[in-house]
Amino acid sequence: MLKQAIDLPGIENARELGGYAVGGKIIKKGVLLRTAGLGGASQETIDKLRNDFRVESVIDFRMTGERYAGPDPEIPGARNIHLPVIETEDYPVKADQKMIDEYKSRDRIKLFEMAYAAGMLGPEQYIIFLLGERGRKAYREFFRILLENDPDTGAVLWHCTDGKDRTGCAAMLLLAALGADRETIIEDYMLTNGYKAAQIEAVKQKTASYPMPQEKLDALLFMSGAVVERYMTNAIDTLTEKYGSIEGYLREALNVGAPEIKELRNKYLCGGCHE
């Protein structure tokens, strides 16, 4: 089984933060779950999320249109909370009708060429998530839910569509709040490429005869399900430059200060737990 994986048939990129060592302690297992969209979840998976993980909150970071196109299944006993990190109107470059038509046609290569030419793909995407008003509101609420949650009685699950970008930024912020170092944060982010290895390799093979600059190839792979390390390092560096550290961003942009961080660590860390 892949590192950090949780077995949830029908759900891609399903894993947890539990088990990471942070500051001499360990993140509790089975209570902080990150995944791709839940639309393909089998009944077995829904039962597992309810009975084994006792999921109490499902946080959906997707756009409103994504949510309507593929609503989450109901997990008995769990709240489903929609916290869109971004909507189409938040992008600085607006999609024109031709781009919208290509999206509907599902021709991802044509759509990629148009989106890349318009400057809609690249490391700045995470900056829009983290610094945009809608994103800050979503991530602020994410932490409020985590602070309200009792990990002794249930888990929190958060997701977007692929479980790597909006979800990955949330995981980065939470890991930092729990005291994880930069290496652990990047390691967790990059795990997506292991989970999506076959899909990524297929794209590489398909485009092998069409050489392109590394920056453009990175953007294509990113759009096709991969993550790119410099996209996340750029996000971390930008927060550090603007706020002094990720913790500074948490405090100033999300109202997650020292008392909240202490409470998060009390809730989600343990000295030598193996549950």
Task: Summarize the structure in short.
The protein is 51% helix and 10% strand.
Architecture overview:
- With 275 residues, the protein is of the alpha/beta class.
- The chain has a single domain, classed as Protein tyrosine phosphatase superfamily (Protein-Tyrosine Phosphatase, Chain A), CATH 3.90.190.
- The protein is built from 14 helices and 8 strands.
- The strands form 2 sheets. A 5-stranded mixed sheet has the order 1-4-7-5-6, with helices on both faces. A 3-stranded antiparallel sheet has the order 2-3-8.
- Helix 2 links the parallel strand 5 and strand 6.
- Helix 5 packs across helix 6, helix 7 packs antiparallel against helix 8 and helix 12 packs across helix 13.
- The longest helix is centred in the middle third of the chain and has 16 residues.
- It is globular, with a radius of gyration of 18 Å.
- The two termini are 18 Å apart.
- The mean pLDDT is 91.
Tell me the total number of β-strands. Answer: 8
Q: Which CATH C-level class is it?
A: Alpha Beta
Q: In which range does the helix fraction lie?
A: 40-55%
- Estimated structural class: alpha/beta
Number of domains: 1
Calculate the mean pLDDT score and round it: 91
Order of helices and strands: EEEEHEHEHHHHEHHHHHHHHE
